[in-house]
Amino acid sequence: MTSDPETIDSEDDLEASPFGQFLFSQRDGKTHTELSQAIAEVSKAVLATGGTGTITLKITVSPLGHENRLVVKDDVVVKPPKPIRDSSIWFYNESQRGLSRNNPTQGELDLAVIPMRPRAGAAIAADRNNTGA
Q1: Distance between CA 70 and CA 76 in Å, rounded?
Q2: Is 35 part of any domain?
Q3: Domain annotation covers residue 14
């Protein structure tokens, strides 16, 4: 494109108005503000998750009447990357017809919890460590 008015051969050679100017004006600047917030949100989420996010701006232009009036609508779709979710390992238990945290093909040990008895002198040693003696 050329910007010199003397070398313009047709209307196709005229420069279009800046798109940024449209963004600042669309819906009284709300579209520009929404996009500014979206890029910050997506950037932060990408750094936090290592995933990929997207921002999509859709602009719909429709005629309004018979003159040169247009209706311009915008839609901003923000898709930040989702955080990585934890997962768990489960086993299918045929006899229960459902999921189980225990492997049904592995036997279980019959274990018992044995309460700990304080050792003789353990309280004295711990007390000396706390007082700095």
Answers
A1: 20
A2: yes
A3: yes
Amino acid found at 42: V
- Rounded mean pLDDT for each run of 10 residues along the chain, 133 residues in total: 56 83 95 97 95 97 92 97 89 88 85 86 59 55
Can you spell out the DSSP letters for 51-96? ---EEEEEEEEEE-SSSS-EEEEEEEEEEPPPPPPP----EEETTT
Q: Which domain holds residue 41?
A: 5-79
Longest Cα separation, the chain: 104
Q: What is the DSSP letter of 99?
A: E
Is 11 a domain residue? yes
The pTM assigned to this predicted structure is 0.57
**Residue 106 lies inside a defined structural domain of this protein:** no
